[in-house]
Amino acid sequence: MFSNLLENPKLFRHLVEDLPVGIYIVDQDRRIRFWNRGVERITGYLSHEVVGHVLEDAVQICDRRGNQLIGEYCPVTMTLNLRKSQQCTAFSLHKSGHRTAVRIRTRPILEYGDNIGGATVLVEEAFAYREATEPPMYGCLDATTGIPSSRLTRAVLTECMAGLEATRHGFGVVRIRILGLEEFRAKHGPQSVVPFLRTAAHTLRHSLGEENFLGCWEEHEFLAVLSSASPAMVAMTAEVLSNLLSHSEVFWWGDHFTIEAEVTYTVAAAGDNLETILGEIKAPRTGCAAKAAAAGDNNGDSGRSRG
Fold first, then answer.
1. 8 Å CB contact between 171 and 229
2. Which of 34, 86, 217, 298 could crosslink 25 through cysteines, CB 3.0-4.6 Å?
3. CATH class for domain 136-306?
4. In sequence order, what DSSP letters do the residues of 246-267 get, joined into one string?
């Protein structure tokens, strides 16, 4: 059976197509020659949309600061130039506009005479987000975003606060408010804000590990409860989320928009109460970021990042 597989190119191709990981191949000119179903799922681009096109037509990745990994910083280009395998964690722009944390591993394709023929690329989601449908904690989902509703989010936060004294283990809390939606809704109607909220929710949930909780909060807001109690880690996570939101895209009637968000964070520790924590992550509701650019401010165990 195995020998038959190797001798049957169609069967072998079918096997690679159905692997549960993303695999694509580029030639020495960085044109896509193969694109399996796994990478279709991760990027949203179908094979017939990208095969034959240059890499940037389908693969747009950035680091956690939002810097685009293009040119000499692109892991595929580095593989072709250096003839060495590369690996990194980056954030891929999905066809629908949200960002997804991915692990990328590349390997050069060497032909006869040690000439570089191209590169193979393996792509996996860094955080394999589990759809919130089965566990009892996720029994109440928001209809717009598909993530836990504000009522369930408050219940989870209350439960975490109740366990502080017993476990003595703190946790991070990050509040994300999407800016400018009131004005956009007044101009374009109630349904116009839905793409912004869905794209933001997808970016956030695909950028947080399973050990962290993400849910809806107040109107146009999300709340993340982080397992880490390190002020530095919580501040870094808040900055990453702010950066990724500002580098996500929303499509509305043929127009492209970026997401502007205000991100606040704090660390809950033994002795804190829910009112104190909610007060620390509360941000002014006035004003709107003039430009989607991340800026962090860490003051003790709480701070604000605006993207």
1. yes
2. 34
3. alpha beta
4. HT-EEEETTEEEE--EEEEEEE
Q: For residue 72, what are the CA distances in angstroms to 62, 115, 213, 305? A: 13, 20, 36, 30
Residues 248, 203 contacting (CB under 8 angstroms)? yes
What tokens were used for 300?
């003790």
Angle between helices 194-205 and 231-246 (to 10 degrees): 140
- CA angle in degrees (0–180, nearest 5) for 146-147-150: 120
List Cβ neighbours of 48 (8 Å cut-off, separation of 6 or more).
none
pLDDT tens, residue by residue, 112-153 = 877 899 999 999 999 755 444 444 444 588 999 999 999 999
Q: Which long-range contacts (CB under 8 A, 24 or more apart) does 106-113 make?
A: 106/75, 106/76, 106/78, 106/79, 107/79, 108/79, 108/80, 108/83, 108/84, 109/25, 110/83
Cα separation of 43 and 100, whole Å? Answer: 8
pLDDT digits (tens, 9 = 90+) for 210-247: 899 999 999 999 999 999 999 999 999 999 999 999 99
Please check whether the domain covering 2-125 is classified as CATH 3.40.50.11890: no
Pairing of strands 116-125, 22-27: antiparallel
